Amino acid sequence: MPYYQLPDLPKRDGESYRDALITREPDRLAELSHWILSTQGPWNDLDASLDSLRPLWVWFMDFVNAGCPGIPIGAHGMNWVAEPHRGLSKSFDPALTCEVIA
Fold first, then answer.
1. Which of 67-70's residues contact partners 24+ apart within 8 Å by CB, and which partners?
2. Could you report how far apart the first and last alpha carbons of the chain are, in Å?
3. What is the pTM of this model?
4. Host H or E run for residue 99
5. pLDDT digits (tens, 9 = 90+) for 66-80
6. Peptide bond before residue 10 is cis, with ω within 30 degrees of 0
7. Which residues pair with 4 in a beta bridge?
8. Helices (H), the chain
9. In sequence order, what are the residues at sequence separation of 6 or more whose Cβ sits closer than 8 angstroms to the Cβ of residue 53?
10. Domain count, the chain
């Protein structure tokens, strides 16, 4: 399946992608909560406030720099993680791509 930069998607495909993301939100938040808790991350500091974004980002970068422990290398969505060590610097600014949802 081809990958596209978000700005290159036709509006209809972009809207379909947005709708799919919104539908998956509860499950993805539950999965994120699992990963944060299982890695002794800052779960108690995450209250959906702007201030909680910093501990979430620090945890995320540590998780990625550790090689995303527990997530298989070939897992969907892992295509943007740097190879071969899968680690990223603290200042990494990914140009994320998305899969077109038909």
1. 69/39, 70/35, 70/38
2. 11
3. 0.58
4. strand 97-99
5. 878 887 777 656 555
6. no
7. 98
8. 11-38, 53-65
9. none
10. 1
